[in-house]
Amino acid sequence: MFLITKSEVGGAQKYVKEQIDISVNQFDVFLATNEVGWLTENIADKTMGLLLDKRIESRMAFGYLIKLIKYIKQHQIDLVVCNSANGGLYGRIAAKLTGASSIYVSHGWSSVYNGGRLTFILNRIERFLGNISGKTICVSNNDYLTAQRKIGLAEDKLILLKNCIFPVELQLSAPSNRRGAGSRLKLLSLARLAYPKRMDILIEAMSGIDFAELYLIGLGPDEEEIKKDVYARRLDNVFLLGEVKSFNSFADYHAFILISDSEGLPMSALEAMSAGLPLILSNVGGCSEIVVNPSLLVENSVEDIHRALFELNENFDSYKLPVKDFFDKNFNLLLNKDKYLNLYSSLIK
After folding, report:
1. Rounded to whole angstroms, what are the CA distances from 209 to 181, 205, 234, 278, 338?
2. CA 28: distance to chain centroid?
3. What ranges in 24-154 are assigned the alpha helix state H?
4. List of residues 6+ apart from 151 with CB closer than 8 A
């Protein structure tokens, strides 16, 4: 069973979708999430059953925990793979109480980066849950070290297994993302418009940049503020395209940019890399592990984003050249799926 709090479009949801894709030929797969949404629509014909309940969105829903325990017992589920903070809470406890094995996939440690005043308490809870679960998958070296040093998880509970995805399927008629002489640099940012993403800094950085255009794809609670900011700055090089379902038009752009206060190993950046786009990413989480050229790793400041944009503008061809090969060697799920399947098999009793 794969467990995730929300079924909406997102990086963790894409991860779960592709894990289900590679698992269905070897295992009977179930999914537990909050409601019908992007994820359920994309795996509808691949699972043996769905457990939909909005109470998973709350961390204090004892009734949901009871329902989950009954579902695991009823369907004789052997392994619960948890992919969100709430999913990790309910899934690991339910697995322990039913005798099933469990895996928690850390897509960035929210207890560390977003815990605020509760960080110490949340880290202690994560340590307890990590000790009662089978394994914790860390999706980057940074997450692995954080799990050891700040959460306090033992090494034998941790597995470093960097995010892998299927390469994006580009449209056959899509133009090459080669850059014509004198043309503007077309930057793509594909993300939910909400914290910890820092679209405010990125939009401010686009002021005074005449050699690049920024295209924002995604929805979120910050959308109206972003629109107001773009209008107030009178920017003619920033375009909000909203949500684009099943987006795969990476070949229309030259580079990918993501500015954020915290990340695990961003799935949208891996998608862009699989299409051969150079990445400009914030120096947070595991981002340094997927940026091929270190000079395109930035601090969250207008000045440093400007520096990286100028670097990429001047060296576009050389920065683009090694990207696709780097992806194939390290993050291509087609070439690395056995790492996941073997892990799942080893934990099923």
Report:
1. 17, 8, 13, 19, 45
2. 25
3. 38-42, 62-74, 85-98, 110-113, 119-132, 141-146
4. 109, 111, 112, 123, 126, 127, 130
Q: Which amino acid is at 48?
A: M
CATH fold, domain 185-330, is Rossmann fold (3.40.50)
**DSSP for 142-155, written as a single string:** HHHHHIIIII---G
pLDDT 10s digits, 178-210: 666 668 999 999 999 999 999 999 999 999 899
Structure tokens at 88: 């990790």
pTM of the model: 0.86
Helix (H, G, I), strand (E, B) or coil at 74: helix
Contacts 24+ apart (CB under 8 A), 40-48: 40/7, 42/17, 43/17, 46/20, 46/21, 47/20, 48/75
Q: Where are the domains of the chain?
A: 2-165+333-347, 185-330
Cα separation, 77 vs 349, whole angstroms: 10
**The two three-digit tokens of residue 89, written as one number:** 């809470």
CA triplet 319, 164, 23: central angle to 5 degrees?
155
- DSSP lists the bridge partners of residue 279 as 256
Q: In this structure, what DSSP letter does residue 252 have?
A: G
Instruction: Give the model confidence (pLDDT) of 11-36 as tens digits.
Output: 899 999 999 999 999 999 999 999 99
CATH annotation of 2-165+333-347: 3.40.50.2000
* Measured CA distances, 2 to 106, 124, 254 (Å): 14, 24, 35
pLDDT digits (tens, 9 = 90+) for 281-330: 999 989 999 999 999 999 999 999 999 999 999 999 999 999 999 999 99
Give the integer Cα–Cα distance in Å for 334 and 131. 31
Question: What is the residue whose two structure tokens read 């930057």?
Answer: 187
